[in-house]
């Protein structure tokens, strides 16, 4: 099957599938994950959905443990496993991009999922079936978040509500479990921004898409790489990378401050003309602190966008590949 960008295709034969797994400090975990996914690939091959040369690609995102040694050993023992080692920790999105761009010309369908197996591998067949009907992108959407902590569920619900109000294309419950054909990945490669938010970029690319729903599983081993601090950072990155709404809110905050100040001035003049001078300083102090806080937050929001411009104009590479298990 040809991977020419921008073409809609009808596919009857099996796909050559590449499953991209970003890995960070997954020593002791990645071996079990690979074993499960290879069995799933065998099932897809037996059903005629995937070709016999389908494979896995594990991307080591600058791990500080023995993750790369395990990936290298797995790749040496099985030719259906490829490994990519990044020179440093470039972050989860960039590790995904490294795997996608490096394998775009080698596969028909590229699937991304986390190495912790919380994404349900049993829906991979449904994803490929959707591609057979002509869908270019298929999103894995969580039915619930029961395995997450209460605070994480509340934070996720708030994030999707906020993002949904700012970006109507946002897919609620979708993280980085998705499949896309090689042509879509070629179009993704044209997005050159440094501050890339993949969960928002894929819906922006367009093309016919579908959703498959699954129940998020318990992490089968290891620890979560996304504590609350990183989740908040990811949410803020998504908001500021994909919408200028916060800047509009800064303007509205300034307008509100002006109206409050104008009303306060009218009140002071009215009180002075009616021999009721305002006593004390508590109200003045409260207003001063409130306005100062709004000003400081506004400057912070503007600074966030200026910082993103600063990163963009430097044109630093998103990732650097140190070595691979396949020598290219």
How would you describe the overall organization of this protein?
The protein has 2 domains: 17-225 and 317-324, Spore Coat Polysaccharide Biosynthesis Protein SpsA, Chain A; 245-314. 48% of the residues lie in helices and 14% in strands. It contains 10 helices and 8 strands. It has helices spanning 30-46, 67-77, 92-103, 124-132, 150-166, 182-188, 198-205, 228-242, 245-273, 282-314, and strands spanning 17-23, 55-60, 81-86, 109-112, 137-142, 174-181, 209-214, 321-324. The chain has an 8-stranded mixed β-sheet with strand order 7-5-6-4-1-2-3-8, with helices on both faces.
Give the topology, please.
Blueprint: E1 17-23, H1 30-46, E2 55-60, H2 67-77, E3 81-86, H3 92-103, E4 109-112, H4 124-132, E5 137-142, H5 150-166, E6 174-181, H6 182-188, H7 198-205, E7 209-214, H8 228-242, H9 245-273, H10 282-314, E8 321-324
Parallel strand pairs: 1-2, 1-4, 2-3, 5-7
Antiparallel strand pairs: 3-8, 4-6, 5-6
Oligomer: single chain
Rg from Cα: 25 Å
Binned, the helix content reads 40-55%
Q: Count of helices?
A: 10
User: What is the CATH C level class of the largest domain, in words?
Assistant: Alpha Beta
**Order of secondary-structure elements:** EHEHEHEHEHEHHEHHHE
Categorize the overall geometry: elongated
Proper CATH architecture of the largest domain: Alpha-Beta Complex
CATH superfamily of the largest domain: Spore Coat Polysaccharide Biosynthesis Protein SpsA, Chain A
Strands side by side in the biggest sheet: 7-5-6-4-1-2-3-8
The third-level CATH topology of the largest domain is Spore Coat Polysaccharide Biosynthesis Protein SpsA, Chain A
């Amino acid at each position: 099957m040809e991977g020419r960008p921008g073409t809609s295709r009808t596919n009857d034969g099996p796909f050559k599938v590449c499953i991209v797994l970003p890995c960070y400090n997954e020593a002791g975990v990645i071996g079990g994950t690979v074993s499960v996914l290879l069995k799933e690939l065998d099932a897809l091959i037996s059903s005629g959905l995937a070709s016999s040369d389908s494979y896995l690609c594990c991307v080591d995102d600058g791990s500080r443990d023995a993750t790369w040694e395990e990936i290298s050993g797995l790749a040496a023992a099985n030719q259906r496993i490829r490994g990519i080692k990044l020179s440093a920790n470039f972050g989860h999105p960039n590790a995904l991009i490294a795997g996608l761009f490096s394998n775009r010309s080698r596969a028909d369908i590229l699937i991304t999922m986390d190495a912790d197996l919380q994404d349900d591998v049993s829906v991979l067949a449904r994803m490929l079936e959707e591609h057979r009907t002509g869908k270019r992108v298929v999103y894995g959407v969580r039915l619930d978040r029961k395995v997450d902590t209460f605070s994480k569920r509340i934070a996720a619900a708030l994030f999707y509500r906020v993002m949904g109000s700012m970006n109507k294309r946002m897919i609620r419950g979708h993280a980085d479990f998705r499949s896309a054909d090689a042509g879509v990945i070629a179009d993704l490669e044209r997005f050159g921004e440094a501050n890339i938010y993949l969960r928002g970029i894929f819906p922006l690319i367009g093309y016919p898409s579908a959703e498959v729903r699954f129940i998020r599983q318990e992490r089968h081993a290891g620890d979560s790489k996304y504590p609350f601090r990183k989740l908040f950072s990811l949410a803020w990155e998504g908001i500021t990378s994909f919408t200028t709404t916060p800047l509009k809110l800064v303007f509205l905050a300034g307008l509100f401050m002006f109206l409050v100040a104008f009303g306060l001035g009218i009140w002071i003049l009215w009180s002075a003309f009616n021999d009721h001078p305002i006593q004390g300083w508590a109200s003045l102090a409260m207003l001063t602190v409130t306005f100062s806080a709004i000003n400081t937050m506004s400057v912070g929001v503007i600074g966030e966008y200026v910082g993103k411009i600063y990163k963009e104009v430097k044109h630093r590479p998103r990732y650097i590949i140190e070595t691979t298990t396949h020598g290219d």
